[in-house]
Amino acid sequence: MKIGKPSLSFWQIFNMNVGFLGIQYSFGLQQTAINPIFLYLGAPEDMLPILNIAGPVTGLVVQPIIGAMSDKTWSPRWGRRKPYFLIGALIGSICLFMFPSSPVLWFAVGLLWILDVGNNMAMEPYRAFVGDKLPEKQFSLGYQMQSLFVGAGILLANGSIVLFQYLFGDQSVEVAGSIPTWLYYSFYIGGILSITTILWSVLKTPEIPPTESEFNEIKASRNKPLAVRIAQPFGEIKEAIKKMPPFLWKLGAVYLFQWYALFVYWQYITPLFMNTLGYSTSEAASQSAQMSLTYNIVTMVVALGLVPLTLRFGGKKVYSISLVGTAIALFTIPFIKDPLLVLAPMVLFGVGWAAMMGIPYTMVSKVVPQERRGVYMGILNMMIVIPMGIETLTFGPIYKYFLGGNAINAILFAGVFFFIAAVLALRLNVSKEKTDTVL
After folding, report:
1. What does the pLDDT read at residue 248?
2. pLDDT band with cut points at 50, 70 and 90 for residue 438
3. What is the DSSP string of 384-402?
4. What region holds the Major facilitator superfamily (MFS) profile domain (predicted)?
């Protein structure tokens, strides 16, 4: 049963989403700095996909389970979702402080697994948290505000990499098997932001207590034996998938190509610049960070601007066109030899990233039951990490044997997948029975 929720002010929605800044700063480091670290520590290029399997696996396991658990949690002091993203942020913070000191490749890979557990533990309840607090008419603003903080966090992460490489990169010569000290500072900043931004949102935003029927369900869950309580999230996930709205199956098809392509881009943009611009690993990592910096600035600028566009033209049209723009960006990048001019396609990429981080969550929140929003947001994340997992297992051989071990071909391959995702996005329709405002 849906309950009436008061509309929140712009700044209340802003404060509620500040914690996403720290989570996405960490994610920004994963996009841009983790693969260069693997290269520094001696990883061959065709091994990059499998070394990134931590993200898909932890996302697949952690997020839906945490989502189901948070649906059945309530503390008068800590709330429903807050305990999970507080613990997740603390785990992530510790890992970020340790990461640049990784002595060998296996240590860095192991830390990535733990970091991803923390980030996923924080991420999933945060998506549900926004849906819990806002009335349906403010979903678009809430999730696009979250998209703005996605851009801001990743922007800060990549901006710090560019800055520190510029200031201190010349002071350290690349040594095989070691991580340059200039990269340490970005991770230390991330460790601080991870916990402080979450605390800001926790202290500024009270959660809405459960309804009487929800509270009775939570109490009944607490009275069950421990073994039953441990197994319960898995059962809820299974039942939720059985009853999943057709819209989510269609979105899963879009995500299959979209997130496979994104993982290819993040893994091979640094090797691309080592190829096309003749850069060293540090120079290529800095150029990759500039690319990410550019598209996340665009994301911040356009994120809230997508709200009136989606209300006027419909979410699926804006989403699809944005994905086409992302495909065009990837088709263009490998053929630009100027380090400044190659930033231009990131405008299209940034618009696409803003759409990807906001529009699908707005649409999903309108078609899933309020009392099961946590588990469905977890299932939505499964639709993200499964394509990533497929990519980590399949793209290494594809890159080595079918794409000639050439990063240019890898980026073009990702562009084709974005175009396919754009076509599939045209099938996304939010049922008119579910909402008065079609998005």
Report:
1. 87
2. very low
3. HHHHHHHHHHHHHHIIIII
4. 12-433
pLDDT band for position 427 (cuts 50, 70, 90): confident
Q: What is the pLDDT of residue 306?
A: 79
Number of C-beta neighbours around residue 153 at 10 A: 27
What is residue 4's predicted lDDT score, i.e. its pLDDT? Answer: 63
- Residue-wise pLDDT tens digits, 145-190: 877 787 788 888 888 888 888 787 665 555 556 788 888 889 999 9
Q: How far apart are CA 183 and CA 186, in angstroms?
A: 6
Phi and psi dihedrals of 225, rounded to 5? Answer: -55, 155
Q: Count Cβ atoms within 10 A of the Cβ of residue 257 and give its class: 0-12 exposed, 13-18 middle, 19 or more buried.
A: buried
Per-residue buried b or exposed e for 206-230, using 16+ beta carbons within 10 Å of the residue's own CB = ebeebeeebeeeeeeeeeeeeeeee
Residue-wise DSSP of 122-138: HHHHHHHHHHHHS-GGG
Position of tokens 């999230």?
A: 233
What separation, in Å, do the N-terminal and C-terminal C-alpha atoms of the chain show? Answer: 22
pLDDT surpasses 80 at 212: no
Give the C-alpha separation, 229 to 166, whole Å: 52
User: What pLDDT is recorded for position 154?
Assistant: 82
Smallest Cα–Cα separation from 284: which of 270, 267, 269?
270
**β-strand partners of 75:** 79
Q: Work out the pLDDT band at 435, boundaries 50, 70, 90.
A: very low
45 in Cβ contact with 205 (< 8 Å): no
User: In this structure, what token pair is assigned to residue 169?
Assistant: 């990169």
How is the chain split among helix, strand and coil, in percent rounded to 5? 80, 0, 20
| Structural contact between residues 306 and 361, judged by C-beta atoms closer than 8 angstroms | no
pLDDT of residue 436: 37
Give residue 282's Cα distance to chain centre.
25
Cα distances from 408 to residues 156, 239, 330, 332, in angstroms, run 27, 43, 10, 10
- Residue 219, CA atoms < 13 Å, CB-side half-sphere: 7
State the maximum Cα–Cα separation within the chain, in Å, rounded to a whole number.
Answer: 64
Sequence-separated (6 or more) residues with CB below 8 Å from residue 179: 37, 40, 41, 100, 101, 102
Q: Whole-prediction pTM value?
A: 0.72
**369 CB contacts (<8 Å, ≥6 apart)?**
376
Q: How far apart are CA 124 and CA 85, in angstroms?
A: 8
